[in-house]
Amino acid sequence: MKFFIFMFIVSYTKPLWADKPCAARQIEDESVVCVCNSSYCDDIIREHPADGTYVVYTSSKSGLRFQKRISQWSDGELSRRLTLELDPTKQYQTIEGFGGSVTDSAAINWKSLLPVLQDSLIESYFGENGLEYNMVRTPIGGADFSIRTYAYNELPLNDASLTNFTYTPEDIIYKIPMFRSIMNVAKTPVHTVATTWSPPVWMKTNNNYSGFSQLKPEYYQTYANYHLKFIELYTSAGIPIWAITTTNEPINGILALAPFNSLGWTVKNMGKWISDNLGPTIRNSIFQSVKIITGDDQRVTVPYWFNMLVTFTPEALNYIDGLGVHYYTDKFVPPAVFETVTLTHPDKFILATEACEGSFPWQSRKVILGSWDRAKAYILDILQDLNYNLVGWIDWNLCLDMQGGPNWSNNFVDSPIIVDKNRQEFLKQPMFYAMGHFAKFIPRGSVRIHMSEKHGGILPSSIYKIAFFTPKNTIIVNIYNDGKTRSINLRVGQQQTSLLLEADSITTVEFPYTL
Ligand SMILES: *[C@@H]1O[C@H](CO)[C@@H](O)[C@H](O)[C@H]1NC(C)=O
Ligand SMILES: *[C@@H]1O[C@H](CO)[C@@H](O)[C@H](O)[C@H]1NC(C)=O
Ligand SMILES: *[C@@H]1O[C@H](CO)[C@@H](O)[C@H](O)[C@H]1NC(C)=O
Ligand SMILES: CC(=O)N[C@H]1CO[C@H](CO)[C@@H](O)[C@@H]1O
């Protein structure tokens, strides 16, 4: 019996030291990147906290990456400044997941690495000792993060019945192999969201991949079938599609905003296409459970793609499962805009479907190695979105090259993993760990719970926070400290403790809880 107890302790404590720490490379004026090469890559093991204990994981500007500590709840000396109090009985949205995007560019960069590095990149994102991503977004055909402009069934021209819809070289050489690698590694089903940037040019009014365009009316049903054909094509390659969106950033093609693949939609026509074509096509097929996500555009457009659309075409509500939102106007548009949907249509979900840093013309440095500011921008945005009942958050390219590409339209941006093909290594940016504090610790099915702040002092709050009850019967709390090192209290029921928050850091706390 003693022998077994001893074994239990050994097997319980051993994983604490099994994490491989970040191989840190300090970047001048920035934080660190963690370097993965063919013989070394850091990982993170999620502990199972025992009753009466909690586990703390911290990443910080000073260079901590998932630093792990185990502590006990105490009734000792508490801070008098700030107490965060949890109320697990008051619950909000249920989480669908977190992830990143398999674009042509991401898959090309991934493929440029040695096989052993390809594996550790996928492990880093999807593995049990990685971030445990459980969602992916992928373009249907080409996007700006491709090396050429293309779509499915470009030829024959005006082929309304899509007789030539088949795999592209990008699917065969890059994207499908990357998906297969992901699905071999992921321990939970990966929910894939597929999106068209532009259909073949013959379906469009301007006969061009970019610029001002709309769908020619005679191809409304063809464009619906185009989505069904894609779902069939990827499903037969072993890649199930969980959702489709109703076209990437439809505003771009109306305002001719972006120099890359787009298709413009007016709200009225979009509603009509969903009700008359896309909705019935999907729901009357064997893929009827594939979710239909409308919007897939900036936060500023939420009232158009949802409330205005369903006012014009209420029938669209029968087909729409949720709304997708992109990141790029978040700093200028208050999140309260989400309440126009969440309060009026609580049965529809909102999912963040695209985000990256470095996309604005005034951001002259597209990739900034080691940028903590960009990690912080991700963290604060995710906290804000989740606090407004969004059900998940999908990042853009899973990896890019040192320049932030490749990209046929020279639209370079940053990514949580930067691939250095020449040195055969990849660099995990601070943004990678920012994603990890959410993706790894908030599994699908987690429910957000209420947390209130009680101030005992005069310090203004530079604390941003969120809490979830997870399907593993634990509570997780994420706290961003946007200031100097400080102590706060955490309380749930009779249990309370003092928590030390590092300067400029994100802290995840996890402990067992029975509702
Ligand atoms: C790989 O990284 C490890 C840890 O930083 C280092 O010790 C090793 O020398 C590197 N190997 C190569 C081939 O660069
Ligand atoms: C089918 O598409 C391929 C790839 O674009 C093209 O090479 C081929 O000519 C097309 N077939 C027909 C019959 O148009
Ligand atoms: C397509 O539109 C872009 C501008 O968005 C323009 O530069 C390009 O010349 C056009 N191509 C064709 C074939 O018309
Ligand atoms: C600057 C740069 O790398 N541009 C690339 C963008 O993508 C196109 C298509 O792959 C390349 O030809 C350019 O070199």
Describe the structure.
- The protein has 515 residues and is of the alpha/beta class.
- It folds into 2 domains: 53-93 and 446-512, Golgi alpha-mannosidase II (Immunoglobulin-like, Sandwich); 98-439, Glycosidases (TIM Barrel, Alpha-Beta Barrel).
- 25% of the residues lie in helices and 26% in strands.
- The protein has a 9-stranded mixed sheet with strand order 4-3-22-19-18-17-5-20-21, covered by helices on one side. Strands 12-11-10-9-8-7-6-13 form an 8-stranded parallel sheet.
- Helix 2 crosses helix 4, helix 3 (115-126) packs across helix 4 and helix 10 (372-387) packs parallel to helix 11 (430-439).
- The longest helix has 17 residues, at 169-185.
- Residues 1-17 have low confidence and may be disordered.
- It binds 2-acetamido-2-deoxy-beta-D-glucopyranose (4 copies).
- One 2-acetamido-2-deoxy-beta-D-glucopyranose is lined by residues 154-156, 164.
Q: What structural class do helix, strand and pairing data support?
A: alpha/beta
First-to-last CA distance: 32 Å
Integer count of domains: 2
Residue fraction in strands = 25-35%
Protein name: Glucosylceramidase
Domain Glycosyl hydrolase family 30 TIM-barrel: 95-442
Family: Belongs to the glycosyl hydrolase 30 family.
Domain Glycosyl hydrolase family 30 beta sandwich: 445-509
Write a concise keyword list for the protein shown above.
about 525 residues, alpha/beta, Immunoglobulin-like, TIM Barrel, nine-stranded mixed sheet, eight-stranded parallel sheet, globular, disordered N terminus, binds 2-acetamido-2-deoxy-beta-D-glucopyranose
